[in-house]
Specification:
Elements: E1 18-23, H1 26-31, H2 42-59, E2 68-74, E3 81-86, E4 89-96, E5 126-136, H3 138-143, H4 150-161
Length: 167
């Protein structure tokens, strides 16, 4: 965080770092020549190298490893896997969008509070705005990647756009 000059507002439920595991089933690794207890075949290492490149594109800060705390390949368990820990750093923040009148001023309700803009489904509208300096924020990190759909989007991207599953 210090290298990135990132801010962090600590709260009771704040997330300081997150993890991810990338793997497949045992049969997949056996097709790549893996046998438990033996040296890792080149094909297995190449698979995990491509997976790490995918992780950098998807969760790396601006495509780099500056927010990656640890990335370790484990082959001592039933199935090989890449275990990765990272800090969810963003350089944008979610901001409410307010309704504006013809004069460009924010509209207010009878109590004087600004009226938040709604979409065609009556859901509040937000936008992401640039920050002066990066911040650690899991909510914004995953919000930028699709919010509640973010994990599914990440899995879909892994399966369709990564070279991890080539063989």
């Amino acid at each position: 965080m210090k290298e990135l000059n990132a801010t962090f507002r600590e709260k009771k439920k704040s997330v300081a770092f997150e993890g991810m595991i990338i793997t497949s089933d045992t049969a997949f690794f056996e097709r790549l020549g893996w046998k438990k207890g033996e040296e890792r075949p080149y094909a297995v290492m190449e698979f995990f190298n491509r997976c790490y490149e995918f992780a950098l594109r998807e969760i790396g800060y601006k495509g780099t490893d500056k927010n990656i705390l640890s990335a370790v390949i484990h082959v001592d368990e039933k199935t090989p896997h890449l275990q990765l820990y990272y800090i969810p750093i963003v350089d944008t923040a979610k901001k409410k969008v307010y309704e504006k009148g013809s004069d460009g001023k924010v509209l207010r309700n009878e109590k004087g509070s600004p009226i938040q803009k709604k979409d065609e489904h009556s859901k509040s509208v937000y936008e992401y705005v640039p920050l002066e300096q990066p911040k650690l924020c899991s909510l914004d990190f995953w919000g930028e990647r699709g919010g509640q759909l973010s994990y599914g989007n990440l899995q879909d991207s892994f399966n369709t756009n990564s070279r991890c599953n080539e063989r």
